[in-house]
Amino acid sequence: MTTLEEVRRRAEIDAQSRGYLLNSNPGFLKDLLQGLRANEERYGYPSCPCRPSAGVFELDRDIICPCDYRDPDVEEFGQCYCCLYVDREVHDSGVTSPIPERRPPEKQARSLGFEEEPQTAALEAAAPEKVRKLLYCKVCGYVVFREEPPHVCPICRAKKEFFADIEP
User: Fold this and answer.
1) Which residues are bridge partners to 137 per DSSP?
2) 77 shares its domain with 154
3) Residues 14, 87: one domain?
């Protein structure tokens, strides 16, 4: 069983690797870390404590902490969606505020076990088809089959720029 201190240490190491800090509110931070630990024990991976998880790795991989949305959220708003990772300004002020959810509605619905709403299906049908590609991390060799590379490699933490297509 993973201890809360181990979860905290992993989050701190990851935050430092990207120049982020952890939330400065001790009680709130503890709640977030307990949520990560609970999800890791429940599902076998630390899915975001602020988003519903399907409990299926393939459906949840974009919300495994640090999620795919963390870096763009911190860059734009100074904090990630759940406020675990923050920039220096947010950390020092201690002030966080709600930010928009970047996770696409269809992924949210699938995590909750809902079928896509007809409007969503119609919009997707009218939109250009998304093509999944086989990609690999040039740093560690991690391979994924997705539309886009993850923002951060879950193995070595390399940025998405270090991913390349694997040609068949």
Assistant:
1) 163
2) no
3) yes
Q: Which of 30, 48, 29 is nearest to 39 (CA)?
A: 48
Domain extent for 33:
4-93
In a domain, 10, yes or no: yes
Which tens digit of pLDDT belongs to each residue from 108-136?
888 877 755 544 454 455 555 667 788 89
Are 13 and 79 members of one domain?
yes
Question: How many other CB atoms are found less than 10 A from the CB of residue 3?
Answer: 9
Q: Which residues does 120 contact at the CB level (< 8 Å), separation at least 6? A: 105, 106, 109
Place 155 in a pLDDT band, splitting at 50, 70 and 90: confident
Distance CA 129, CA 138 (A): 27
